[in-house]
Specification:
- There is one protein chain.
- The longest helix has 18 residues.
- α2 packs parallel to α3, α4 runs parallel beside α8 and α6 crosses α8.
- β4, α4 and β5 form a beta-alpha-beta unit.
- Helices cover 43% and strands 22% of the residues.
- By secondary structure, it is of the alpha/beta class.
- It is elongated, with a radius of gyration of 19 Å.
- The strands form three sheets. Strands 2-1-3-4-5 form a five-stranded parallel sheet, sandwiched between helices. A four-stranded antiparallel sheet has the order 6-7-8-9, covered by helices on one side. A three-stranded antiparallel sheet has the order 10-12-11.
- The chain has eight helices and twelve strands.
């Protein structure tokens, strides 16, 4: 495989499905590391750098949900898909709460999966492109989107790409309504229910980062979006 091919970690305990999916993705110019259980998957993730993870949910030694938590501790924003035979709404919600970009139920169409992978990697590439950058003073905070840094009183928080993009949009709409649908389509790619739940998790993270300035507030405008309230 050429070094510039996107690298995918595939963790799947079904030998046949794992090999078929690995071969299919490699035919479409992806470099795929296939592991058979969660422990081996975690070891591979810690050993190498990946662009995206595909995780089965029901696996021996460590299930996919636990593996996802471990991966998120290392890299909170790497694109992550669950591949699962578990179709209950509660399982799907749990997957998105763990920060999944998508939850794909088995059996699935490999071509559709490929299109989703291409879309999420393209989104991340566009979000990380450098261009004209505006820095923002938000109350006592200074926000530099290019460096993904939020600073106050000499302390700096480095934001993940999604956190950075969401705060940038809120700052662009400062003291005005950021439409929920617009943020979801720009950052998550679509305004589905589950992407909405994922965005709510990121809003909670940003509120935590901004809590040192009590004059700043991210207000939920029910059903419509959010408003970053910053004193004049």
């Amino acid at each position: 495989m050429e070094a510039n091919h996107p690298k995918i970690l595939l963790v799947e305990d079904d030998n046949n499905l794992g090999m078929v999916l690995k071969n299919y993705l490699e035919l479409n110019d992806y470099d795929v590391a296939l592991e058979r259980d969660g422990i081996l998957g975690l070891a591979a993730f810690r050993r190498e750098k990946f662009d995206l993870c595909l995780l089965d949910v029901m696996m021996p030694n460590m299930d996919g949900f636990t593996l996802a938590e471990e991966i998120r501790d290392v890299d909170p924003d790497i694109p992550l898909f669950f591949l699962s035979a578990k179709t209950m709404k509660e399982d799907i919600i749990q997957g998105y709460k763990l920060g999944a970009d998508d939850y794909i139920t088995k059996p699935f169409d490999s071509e559709v999966l490929l299109l989703k992978i291409k879309a999420i990697l393209k989104r991340n590439e566009e979000m990380n492109k450098t261009g004209e950058v505006t820095e923002y003073d938000l109350g006592r905070y200074h926000f530099n989107p290019k460096l993904r840094e939020l600073s106050i009183n000499g302390k700096t928080q480095t934001l993940s790409p999604k956190e950075n993009e969401l705060l940038k949009m809120l700052a662009e709409f400062k003291n005005d309504l950021l439409p929920r649908e617009q943020a979801l389509k720009r950052i998550w790619g679509s305004d589905t229910y589950f992407n909405g739940r994922s965005m709510d998790v990121y809003i909670a993270k940003l509120r935590k980062y901004l809590k040192e300035d009590e004059t700043i507030e991210i207000v939920n405008i029910h059903g419509n979006g959010f408003r970053l309230v910053v004193p004049a």
